[in-house]
Write a structure and sequence with these properties.
single chain; 3 helices; about 85% helix; flat
Amino acid sequence: MKEILRTAAGFILVVVGIAGLILPVMPGWIFLIPGLVILGERFKWAKRLVEWAKHKAALAKEKIK
């Protein structure tokens, strides 16, 4: 039951995050990132997406230095 609630919370955060990216009312990344991290514990596609984002962030960090 706990795993189902955690997965549902992850999907809800992702949906709210996508809505936030589209609507100018709130920043979507605040909800999208935690949602993907939660889903990454259970789904390979979400884990790959989080790892890709970490890689891109590391490359951007190196570019700034």
